[in-house]
Predict the structure.
Amino acid sequence: MKITTLRLILGDQLNHKHSWFDSVDNSILYVMMEIRQETDYVTHHIQKVVGFFMAMRQFSQELHEQGHRINYIMLDDEINTQSLTNNLLWLIQELDIQLFEYQLPDEYRLDHQLQLFCQSIHIPSKAVDSEHFLSKRDDLASFFKGKKTYLMESFYRMMRKKYNILMDEGQPISGQWNYDADNRKKLPKEHQPIQPLVFERNVEHIVGLIHRFAIPTIGNIQVNHFSWPVSHTESLALLDYFIQHCLAYFGTYEDAMHPAYWSIYHSRLSFSLNLKLLHPLEVIQKSIHYWEQNQNTISIAQIEGFIRQILGWREYMRGIYWAKMPEFASMNFFGHNRKLPSWFWTGQTKMACLRHSIGQSLEYAYAHHIQRLMLTGNFMLLTGIHPNEVDTWYLGIYIDAIQWVEITNTRGMSQYADGGIVGSKPYVASANYIDKMSHYCGTCFYDKNKKTGDKACPFNSFYWHFFDRNRALLENNPRIGMAYMSLHKMSDSTKHELLKQADFYLENIETL
Ligand SMILES: Cc1cc2nc3c(=O)[nH]c(=O)nc-3n(C[C@H](O)[C@H](O)[C@H](O)COP(=O)(O)OP(=O)(O)OC[C@H]3O[C@@H](n4cnc5c(N)ncnc54)[C@H](O)[C@@H]3O)c2cc1C
Ligand code: SF4
């Protein structure tokens, strides 16, 4: 049968439940491609490039086995122009395609590129929903229309009602929307969290390909033990493992950090979710079903804490992205302009908390939320790193980093570069918080209790430097009055010593 329709599947659109695949139609050709355009728009972690290619290849194989016509353009295929639109144009001309279709991309960059492409070709085109998210691109903008603030909690409650999740006749089950107060404990000294479920795939051939093409990457990889799931089946196995072994402790230790344990009780599902190997509703329903059967061992605080991440934060961030792009990508509320120290790419710093969290990011392409927010993000905000530098680092290093969910978390939640759209106050902390939630300080070169002088923990003086230098922008924020009251009460000499210490550390940021 002659092919008349070309359908594009992007690397993060691996949704096997998409209605496109409900039936086999031989007049449709699906196309997927490995291209330099995507491997090079930022320097990615090597595990991220491998993970995407492996998952894409697996997905294309599955479509092929189901009888769909698929053209998978490999990185080293002769016809590969390494550009998304040039490859598409070549196929359209070569096969005399009559209709071009694509799923709405989640990145502004690709959305824009495909819109321009469709305007430039002589055949009709059609964009369809990716059928993954639980809210439409502009649902959040409509929900908050006319409002000054975009409170995640209001959006989350609306979503709970809309999908009837953890609800009882219109009210939150157990009478409470939020169990944050019961959660967030430090790991007890003797407590050993369960080992994460890892896969043992050999990825030598893809790593070889990446090296042959001299694709710049960061981080490490064990070619015989690629640990991330790359199919729906493996992603389901990871979900089941999480539900059975981690969910009972998820909320309790959600914010805990430990140098010996890199994922604690976190799900590590973000890669599978972001590539659409898993559907968020599938994750939510399976988790709730398991909790319902095991309420004697899993409290409501644990399941609610987990559901809030998926149904609340994840959907909310996507809504913010589409409501605020492209302006969001250039916001810099504090006017920060410092370069990121080079040890962010090696982990070679004397600060134990950052050495461990950066080191594990290079090793596993993963750090959990509080490591991203309260260690690396906190350091970048306190020291005034330019948000572009921040974005480049986060977008590159994490296996789950795709701009819609990366930039809203960095510029928004972590760096307050949006001036308070995502968060009502900047997330900053001194050694006191880091020590309260982690086991890093005990082995550190620096002294968590010292604010100035030899071996004083840099976070302590940076913290006050941040509030002092941003007084005009933050003093009137009612949520941070305490910090300014403390600054006000501080003697001039103490304040002077603190700021002098911070300035010294900032001048020597490369050797911290
Ligand atoms: C500075 C910074 C950068 C981040 N960059 C990314 C990124 O590039 N990609 C990404 O997926 N997440 C990002 N996050 C959000 C969050 O840290 C990760 O989703 C999470 O750590 C992934 O690990 P997990 O699957 O084990 O999550 P879990 O802790 O097990 O949470 C379950 C799921 O909830 C969702 N989720 C949780 N928190 C958030 C959040 N703040 N925003 C959106 N979804 C959330 C994720 O899908 C996650 O898989 C970032 C957070 C910060 C503070
Ligand atoms: S003392 Fe300071 S730098 Fe060292 S681990 Fe603790 S918070 Fe981090």
Q: What stands out?
A: The chain has a mean pLDDT of 96. The chain is about 45% helix and 5% strand. Residues 266-270, 273-274, 309-310, 313-314, 317, 368-369, 372-373, 377, 394, 398, 400-401, 405-406, 409-410, 413-414 surround flavin-adenine dinucleotide (ligand 1) (CB under 6 Å).
